[in-house]
Write a structure and sequence with these properties.
- The structure holds two protein chains of two kinds.
- By secondary structure, chain A is mostly helical.
- By secondary structure, chain B is mostly helical.
- In chain B, a hairpin with a 2-residue loop joins strand 1 and strand 2.
- The chains are: A mainly alpha, B mainly alpha.
- At the A-B interface, helix 2 and helix 3 of A face helix 4 and helix 5 of B.
Chain lengths: 156, 347
C-alpha cells in the first residue's frame, strides 16, 4: 500500500517536475518502489535484476546525459498548441485501450507452485527448458541492437 | 515468547546484529583512516600521526570532532536538497552491503541458534551487485548539485568509471557462480570450508575482482573522480564539514566491505584450515571463525593502502582502456573456460 503510494507519487513527479534531473531522480524512486512490489510477490531475483539494470545502469546513463546537457526550464523550447492536444488525445486513447484490456482480464488463482516461481532456481530452470526459444531470440535481439549502436557510433 | 504473533527474540536478535555490524564497519572505517596514515608514513619512512594518544590512536576521534565543528558552507548556486542528499546516499549505500556478509557461523545462546549474518537471502551476490551499482548516485548527485565544473567533471568520470568496471566484476562473479552453483554467500563459505578456497580455482577471476574493487571504491590507482591535481579535489570540492567527512568516510566503509567480500568469496570467509578438526565448541568455532575473517579483511585493507602508496594514478584513457580492452576480454575468457570445465566435470 505504502509502496504503491510511493510509486504513484514519484511517477507523477517524473512527469510534473520542471527540472529534468529531479525527473530522473523521481524515476529512480519509482523503480525502487516497483522492485519492492516484486519482493512482496516473492520474486527476489526479478527485483534485484530490475534494480541492477534499470536503476543501476540505465538511469545512471540518463542522469549522465541530463547533467551534461544542463537543461533548464527557461531554455526548454515551447511546444506548439496542436502538439499538446495531439499528445493529450493519444495518451487518452492509450488509457482507454489499457482499461478496456485489463477490465476483462481475470487474475489466475494462486497455486502452490506459482508462489516459488520467482526464486532464482526455478526461474533459471523454466528459462532454459520451457521458454528457451523466446529467451534465446530476445538475447539475439539485444545483440543486434548492440551491433546497431556500434554501427551508428562509427559513422563519423 | 511470541506476542502479537511476532517472534520478539528474533527481532531483538536482528536489531542487535545490525547495530553490531554497523558499529563494526564504522569503527573499522574510522581506524582505517588512522591505519592509512600509519601505512603511508611507514612506506615513506616517516612517523605518521603520533600526538593524540598513544601511537596517535586518538587521532580519528580528533578528526571526527574537528569535522563536526567546522563551519558548514552550502554554495548559493547549488541545489540545496540534492547537495545534502549526495553524501547521505553515499553513506547509506556504503552501510547497506554488509547485510548479506556472513560474519561467522551460527552461535547458540540459551538454546537459540543465532546466525551471525543479517540476511541469508538466496540472491546475496546480486544484492551486493545492486547496492554497489547504487553507490555511484551519491557521487553523481553530489557532484552535480555543487554547480561547479570540476565537481561535474568528477561525477561524470565517476559514473563512466563505475559502470565500465561493473561489467568485468559481474563477469568475474558469473565464473564464480558457475563454480559454486549458488548465489548465497553463506553457502559459498560453507563449500570453501569443506573444500579448497575459491581462489585456487579462480585465480584470474579473483585478480579481475580485485582490480574492479579498487575502481569501484575510487581508490588509487583509479581515484580519478577525486584527482586533486587536475580537478581540485573532484566531486567533493564544494563540500565542507561533516558532509565532506561522510564522502571520505563512505570510501573507507566501502573499502572495508569490499575487503570482507573478497575474503568471503575467494578466501574462505570465516572458514580457516582444519577448523573442524580442532574439536572446539560451536561458540568458540564461531568466534575463531570471525577472527579469521577479520584478519583476512584487515590484510586486504592493508593491501588497498599498500597499493595506494606504491602505484601512481592512471590517466583517464588508460583507465578506460584497461577496463574495456583488457579486463572484459579476460573476464569473458575466464567465464567461458570455467563454463567448459564445469560442463566436462558434470558429464
Amino acid at each position: 500500500m505504502v509502496l504503491s503510494l510511493v510509486a504513484l507519487v514519484s511517477a507523477l513527479g517524473v512527469v510534473l517536475s520542471k527540472n529534468p534531473v529531479s525527473s530522473v531522480l523521481c524515476l529512480i524512486v519509482t523503480f525502487f518502489a516497483i522492485a519492492g512490489h516484486y519482493i512482496m510477490l516473492n520474486a527476489q531475483f526479478l527485483a534485484v535484476v530490475h534494480i541492477i539494470v534499470y536503476a543501476g545502469a540505465i538511469m545512471v546513463l540518463f542522469l549522465y546525459v541530463m547533467m551534461l546537457m544542463n537543461l533548464d526550464a527557461d531554455i526548454e523550447p515551447q511546444k506548439r498548441n496542436w502538439l499538446k492536444y495531439a499528445g493529450a488525445v493519444s495518451g487518452g486513447a492509450l488509457l482507454v485501450v489499457l482499461v478496456a484490456a485489463l477490465r476483462d482480464a481475470s487474475v489466475p488463482a494462486l497455486s502452490e507452485s506459482s508462489v516459488e516461481i520467482g526464486l532464482i532456481h526455478n526461474l533459471g530452470k523454466l528459462l532454459f527448458t520451457q521458454y528457451v526459444v523466446p529467451f534465446e531470440i530476445s538475447s539475439i535481439l539485444f545483440l543486434s541492437a548492440m551491433v546497431g549502436a556500434v554501427v551508428i557510433g562509427k559513422k563519423d | 515468547m511470541t506476542l502479537l504473533s511476532i517472534d520478539w527474540f528474533f527481532l531483538i536478535e536482528k536489531i542487535l546484529l545490525i547495530s553490531g555490524v554497523l558499529v563494526l564497519s564504522l569503527v573499522v572505517a574510522m581506524y582505517s583512516t588512522w591505519g592509512e596514515r600509519k601505512v603511508a608514513a611507514w612506506i615513506q619512512d616517516r612517523l605518521g600521526p603520533n600526538r593524540a594518544g598513544p601511537m596517535g590512536l586518538l587521532q580519528p576521534l580528533a578528526d571526527g570532532g574537528k569535522l563536526f565543528f567546522k563551519e558548514e558552507i552550502i554554495p548559493t548556486n547549488s541545489n540545496r536538497f540534492l547537495f545534502i542528499l549526495g553524501p547521505s546516499i553515499a553513506m547509506l549505500v556504503a552501510c547497506m552491503t554488509s547485510a548479506v556478509i556472513p560474519w561467522a557461523d551460527t552461535i547458540t545462546i540459551a538454546g537459540r541458534q543465532i546466525s551471525l549474518q543479517v540476511a541469508d537471502v538466496n540472491i546475496g551476490i546480486l544484492f551486493i551487485f545492486g547496492v554497489v551499482s547504487m553507490g555511484v548516485y551519491g557521487i553523481m548527485i553530489g557532484g552535480w548539485a555543487s554547480n561547479n565544473k570540476f565537481s561535474l567533471l568528477a561525477s561524470v568520470r565517476a559514473a563512466s568509471q563505475i559502470i565500465s568496471y561493473e561489467l568485468p566484476m559481474g563477469l568475474a562473479l558469473i565464473a564464480l557462480l558457475m563454480l559454486t552453483g549458488t548465489l548465497s554467500l553463506k553457502e559459498i563459505v560453507e563449500q570453501q570450508r569443506a573444500g579448497l578456497w575459491n581462489v585456487v580455482y579462480q585465480p584470474l577471476g579473483f585478480l579481475i575482482f580485485l582490480i574492479c574493487a579498487f575502481a569501484e571504491c575510487n581508490r588509487t590507482p583509479f581515484d580519478l573522480p577525486e584527482a586533486e591535481n587536475e580537478l581540485n579535489g573532484g566531486y567533493h570540492l564544494e563540500y565542507s564539514s561533516m558532509k565532506l567527512g561522510f564522502f571520505l568516510f563512505a570510501e573507507y566503509i566501502n573499502m572495508f566491505i569490499s575487503s570482507a567480500l573478497m575474503a568471503t568469496l575467494y578466501f574462505g570467509g570465516y572458514a580457516y584450515p582444519w577448523m573442524d578438526k580442532l574439536g572446539l565448541s560451536e561458540n568458540m568455532l564461531a568466534l575463531t571463525g570471525f577472527l579469521a575473517l577479520f584478519i583476512k579483511t584487515l590484510f586486504f585493507i592493508f593491501f588497498f593502502m599498500w597499493v595506494r602508496w606504491t602505484i601512481p594514478r592512471f590517466r583517464y584513457d588508460q583507465l578506460m582502456r584497461l577496463g574495456w580492452r583488457v579486463l572484459i576480454p579476460l573476464a569473458l575468457a575466464n567465464m567461458l573456460i570455467t563454463g567448459a570445465v564445469e560442463l566436462l566435470r558434470h558429464h
